[in-house]
Design goal:
Helices cover 15% and strands 21% of the residues. With 84 residues, it is of the alpha+beta class. It has one domain. It is globular, with a radius of gyration of 13 Å. Bound molecules: FE2/S2 (inorganic) cluster.
Length: 84
């Protein structure tokens, strides 16, 4: 079972540090990769460097077209489908 959520998730980052965003949806530390993909998926994490220090919001559904950031597409679709 995936741990996806159809909301952006906050992450505290440090400028210049490298982070791995989960693309498989199985991480127990969403939205960051915990290497669960190695056993549950053929996907690999998306690596990126933080451009600023602070709290940023990353895609929580692993389906964004603008990784690692939410593109607001899946959130809207899933939200509307369930009537929220
Ligand atoms: S746990 Fe999902 S990409 Fe690593």
């Amino acid at each position: 079972m995936t741990t996806k959520t159809y909301n952006p998730l906050p992450v505290d980052v440090q400028e210049g540090e490298r982070y791995k965003w989960c693309t498989c949806g199985y991480s127990q530390t969403m939205p960051l990769c915990d290497h669960s993909h190695r056993e549950k998926s053929d996907k690999k994490s998306f690596k990126f460097f933080a451009e600023t220090t602070g709290t940023i919001e990353l895609c929580g559904c692993s389906e964004t077209t603008t990784p690692p950031y939410c593109d607001q597409q899946q959130c809207k679709i899933k939200t509307n489908r369930h009537g929220y």
